[in-house]
Amino acid sequence: MSDNVGYESTQPLHTTDSLTSDLRRLGVSEGMTLIVHSSLRSIGKVMGGTVSVILALERNIGERGTRAGQYLQGGGGRAAG
Fold this sequence. Notes:
Strand content: 15-25%
Shape: globular
Number of helices: 4
Number of domains: 1
Order of helices and strands: HEHEHEHEEE
Structural class: alpha/beta
Strand order of the largest sheet: 1-3
Oligomer: single chain
Helix content: 25-40%
Radius of gyration: 14 Å
Distance between the termini: 40 Å
């Protein structure tokens, strides 16, 4: 039997709002420059997928901020955006 039984069902479902709050708690704020390298798998279940993560980043850094990173969606290696 695997040690990961039930792992998926116990992960919280992240939303744009919850990610925005989490990023604020980490110190991400208006006007920052962020270089982002991550995967949805490392974040967990996200309602809205990659788009929700990008929106949460943009909400925190605002119009004066800058974000850079590789944003891929799905398994096909296509850039999201």
